[in-house]
Specification:
4-stranded antiparallel sheet; 1 helix; 24 strands; mainly beta
């Protein structure tokens, strides 16, 4: 069998490998050995947690641990995502949090609509994607506010994947093949590309976004600029464009400092 998808929570934790023969292999990543293999013929999405592999399918959201025991979390789950070592599950009209042992986290449930199709969260943001293409951005940090208006140029296509990106961005994959990046605080659309087929996998790794459609159409975006500080970004611009605007014309000259950001540009005349 070939690998269909693979995910891991931490380098020392479990890895979850979904294969084309409907098997789900739970790996001890630290010792590079399989600890259990289960046949799961309806798994549509798989997440690795520190102590278990979580998956969703026709029978709902479930967990399988290193012993091979399967635990049901929600029979009518429409979407799930990961927030660190916890699992988010859209269960009917409730958003519920579970730890990696499958225990529901007390006092964390949240009322939601019943058309949720994608979830993502980190310690700053909660993202909720809908069948209509709408995306909710909810700040989890006091003082960090999302855009007061709707995201710019959203599309009426089911949201299939969500990722909290760097520098308060969100990345969404949709059923029509579009992959989009928005700034959550302004709502501005930063970039968009269309894949052939519904977006099935998205991964943020090594400052790059990897997206693949259900038909195997891939896309890789270098997002390293979004990981730079303001001063680092200005230094990069100054190194490529060492000029300033003086008296109506461009002059080759080291720029002056902007705020706390001092240029370090060697200018050759």
């Amino acid at each position: 069998p070939q690998i269909k998808s693979a995910t891991r929570a931490t380098p020392e934790g479990l890895a979850c490998i979904q294969q084309t023969d409907d098997s789900l292999v739970v790996m001890d990543d630290a010792h590079e050995r399989a600890v259990t293999t289960k046949t799961i013929d309806d798994a549509t999405a798989v997440f690795a947690l520190p102590q278990a592999c979580a998956f969703n399918g026709r029978a709902g959201a479930r967990l399988v641990g290193s012993t091979g025991a399967i635990k049901s979390l929600c029979a009518n789950a429409t979407a799930f995502g990961r927030q660190g070592s916890t699992l988010l599950v859209a269960c009917g009209d409730k958003l519920r949090w579970f730890d990696s042992a499958g225990n529901e986290v007390a006092n964390r449930s949240r009322q939601i609509s019943t058309d949720v199709t994608a979830l993502a969260a980190d310690d700053r943001w909660l993202l909720i994607g809908h069948k209509t293409g709408a995306i909710e951005t909810i700040s989890l940090v006091p003082g960090l506010s999302a855009a007061s208006h709707a995201l710019d140029q959203t599309l009426p296509s089911e949201v299939t994947k969500l990722i909290v990106g760097p520098m308060n961005t969100l990345i969404a994959g949709q059923l029509d093949g579009n992959v989009s990046i928005w700034d959550m605080q302004s709502g501005a659309l930063l970039e968009r590309v269309m894949l052939h087929g519904a977006v099935e996998h998205m991964l943020l790794d090594d400052k790059k976004l990897y997206a693949v459609s259900e038909l195997g159409d891939p896309e890789v975006w270098d997002l390293s600029v979004l990981y730079l500080s303001r001063c680092e970004l200005l230094q990069q611009v100054w190194s490529k464009v060492p000029s300033v605007w003086e008296e109506g014309r461009s002059v080759v000259k080291a720029p002056t400092a902007i705020g706390e950001c001092a240029p370090a540009v060697a200018v050759t005349h």
